[in-house]
Inverse folding.
């Protein structure tokens, strides 16, 4: 008898634990119809860091000063003081731009505004939200408890917690649309796209930017192309330049469900520090498992009922034993 | 019930003073953390947002505290509720382990002054695994308090309330079995969303909750095996303890299930090559596997089950196996990407040691003042 009880109880437990294997996980989230985003073309970036400077101006953040150099912002990576940074790739003699061997190039780091954002999925208190219209991922300090699961759940290590403050918060790029700035709502473009002199950072709708990226990748190396600058729907101006030897890869078209900020480059993205992501987003798997176990709390309720029954009967035996 | 008695005796023994000193040192750093910010005491950074305060104090500490969970399973489900002297000390260590896990989570919260936000339903994000962990752990701490409350009621002599409580206790015992199954498996689910940052030897995706709950039970059942080793030695018994006779098979079954699932997944998910890389990760994986095999070898044979020394070895291996599995998955082999490294700072380590010391101090005080331990010898 007792063995059978145990087997029954463990079957309930096993069902609760194995639920996810049977349950279907949800697919990746889809891009918002009118999502806004940016296209970063690494081959156009000259490393001037005007975008870094403009970002600090828009977000009212101080420059990062290294040593006695007060000439430019020396930020090396994202931090609570830096929401957007330009990094350099160098190999060997670093002679020529956009060459993987003995070459160099520049790469932008800022929030990718994921279509299926990890930070939004993992946040227990809904302090990370994705705007259903613009697709912009926003942060809300008023409810944030500082658990930092968003940092852990972000494939790109974008959210940054202010460890040095007693009352710190998370910082991340909110595409210049946070309350008090609201550049996108006011019909403006992001600060970094506006400041970029070469159009390496281009602002626009995700759809248009994806088309533009595909157009560039489809052209032959050496063909002359008129590269737009600023907002792709109303470019400030254009400049003519030969098409470089692009990698046939638009970062953010599909990675982990895609991103609203996309990158193209002449150098493979793993060399530029992009993470090894698959097309399926990790959080879509995690949510599938979680909802498989907890949908309507049915499995826990069944387990509780079964175990209550077994424990009660067994505990009754105990009472009888005590009384006699 | 009168078989439980307070130990009595003086508080300020040498071990007590030793743990008190460590705890006082940790208080200094905890104060510094609240005044100066986490950066002044910890080595946490943008890539490693969770250090030993989360991974040891919460992820491993609560699994160490699964003794109450495993003992309740053994006694109330498996052993037909037959009275067992292990229940009260196991519930107390679980209560302390979880309460201090909660305390650890609190001082690790970057925005601790708004910690209450997780309890406001309007904020809940039901997609968040951490929400389930947080709420479920909070609820379980309350259930453990209720499960422990007869000890206090006995002490103050509140017989009426005790009787009423005992009538409803079956429900809280059942809750005390369901809730740890829930949040201990969710601690594994947390790893899924961490995606590529988790080393392929530990990233089993859909199977994370199953492996996590088995690792929690492994650590919880080690208490039962520890106790068995003491009673084999202490009472000079030539044969295995009756409880272990049946339970031993269950524990072996769990451990085998863990190893088979994990190794099978390495092949199915195409990650087997990482095992033969000969790097630190593969070495750690092999170490964990050996730690899981040791208790299987010991518990599978009736002769070895009757050997106190061997049982002690099995219990220690089970504790280390579960702890190392979690530590490796969450921290040691975690790779958030280029540019980030983490090793805990001295203050971080001191705070964690202080939390462990506080747990021991409170345990020492409570067993001396409350009827927790079973004083009678087995007849």
């Amino acid at each position: 008898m007792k063995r059978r009880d145990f087997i029954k109880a463990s079957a309930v437990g096993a069902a609760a634990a194995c639920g996810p294997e049977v349950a279907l996980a949800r697919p990746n989230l889809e891009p918002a119809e009118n999502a806004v985003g940016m296209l970063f073309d690494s081959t156009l970036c000259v490393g001037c860091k005007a975008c870094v400077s403009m970002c600090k101006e828009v977000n009212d953040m101080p420059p990062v000063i290294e040593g006695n150099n007060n000439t430019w912002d020396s930020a090396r990576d994202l931090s609570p003081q830096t929401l957007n940074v330009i990094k350099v790739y160098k190999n060997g003699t670093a002679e020529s731009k956009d060459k993987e061997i003995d070459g160099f190039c520049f790469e932008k780091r800022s929030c990718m505004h994921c279509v299926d954002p990890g930070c939004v999925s993992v946040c227990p208190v809904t302090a990370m939200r994705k705007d259903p219209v613009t697709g912009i991922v926003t942060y809300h300090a008023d409810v944030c408890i500082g658990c930092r699961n968003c940092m852990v759940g972000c494939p790109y290590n974008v959210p940054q917690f202010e460890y040095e403050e007693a009352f710190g918060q998370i910082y991340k790029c909110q595409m210049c649309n946070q309350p008090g700035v609201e550049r996108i709502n006011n019909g403006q473009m992001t600060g970094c796209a506006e400041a970029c002199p070469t159009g390496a950072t281009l602002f626009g709708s995700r759809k248009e930017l994806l088309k533009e990226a595909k157009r560039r990748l489809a052209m032959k190396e050496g063909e002359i192309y008129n590269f737009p600058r600023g907002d792709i729907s109303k470019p400030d101006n254009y400049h003519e330049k030969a098409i470089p030897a692009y990698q046939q890869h638009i970062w953010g078209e599909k990675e982990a469900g895609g991103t609203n900020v996309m990158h193209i480059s002449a150098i493979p993205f793993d060399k530029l520090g992009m993470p090894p992501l698959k097309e399926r987003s990790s959080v879509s798997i995690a949510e599938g498992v979680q909802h498989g176990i907890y949908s309507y709390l049915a499995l826990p309720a069944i387990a509780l009922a079964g175990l209550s029954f077994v424990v009660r009967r067994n505990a009754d035996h105990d009472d009888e034993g005590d009384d006699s | 019930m009168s078989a439980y008695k307070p130990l009595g005796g003086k508080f300020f023994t040498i071990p007590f003073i030793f743990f008190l000193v460590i705890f006082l040192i940790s208080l200094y750093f905890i104060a510094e953390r609240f005044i100066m910010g986490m950066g002044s005491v910890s080595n946490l950074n943008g890539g490693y947002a969770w250090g030993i305060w989360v991974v040891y104090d919460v992820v491993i500490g609560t699994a160490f505290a699964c003794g109450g969970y495993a003992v309740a399973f053994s006694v109330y489900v498996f052993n037909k509720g037959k009275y067992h002297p292990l229940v009260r000390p196991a519930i107390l260590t679980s209560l302390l382990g979880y309460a201090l896990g909660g305390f650890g989570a609190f001082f690790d919260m970057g925005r601790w002054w708004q910690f209450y936000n997780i309890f406001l339903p309007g904020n809940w994000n039901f997609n968040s695994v951490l929400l389930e962990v947080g709420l479920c752990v909070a609820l379980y701490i309350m259930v453990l308090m209720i499960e422990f409350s007869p000890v206090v009621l006995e002490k103050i002599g509140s017989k009426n309330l005790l009787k009423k409580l005992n009538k409803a206790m079956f429900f809280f015992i059942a809750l005390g079995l369901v809730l740890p199954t829930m949040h201990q498996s969710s601690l594994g689910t947390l790893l899924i969303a961490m995606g590529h940052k988790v080393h392929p030897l530990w990233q089993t995706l859909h199977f994370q909750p199953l492996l996590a709950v088995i690792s929690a039970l492994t650590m919880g059942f080690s208490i039962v095996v520890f106790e068995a080793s003491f009673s084999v030695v202490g009472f000079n018994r030539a044969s295995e303890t009756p409880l272990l006779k049946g339970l031993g098979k269950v524990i072996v079954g769990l451990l085998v299930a863990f190893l088979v699932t994990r190794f099978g997944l390495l092949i199915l998910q195409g990650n087997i090559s990482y095992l033969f890389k000969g790097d630190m990760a593969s070495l750690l994986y092999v170490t964990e596997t050996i730690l899981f095999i040791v208790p299987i070898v010991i518990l599978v044979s009736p002769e070895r089950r009757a050997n106190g020394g061997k049982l002690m070895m099995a219990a220690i291996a089970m504790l280390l196996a579960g702890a190392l599995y979690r530590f490796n998955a969450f921290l040691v082999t975690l790779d958030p990407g280029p540019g980030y490294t983490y090793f805990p700072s001295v203050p971080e380590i001191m705070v964690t040691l202080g939390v462990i010391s506080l747990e021991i101090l409170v345990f020492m005080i409570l067993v001396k003042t409350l009827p927790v331990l079973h004083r009678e010898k087995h007849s």
Observations:
- Residues 298-323 of chain A form the longest helix (26 residues).
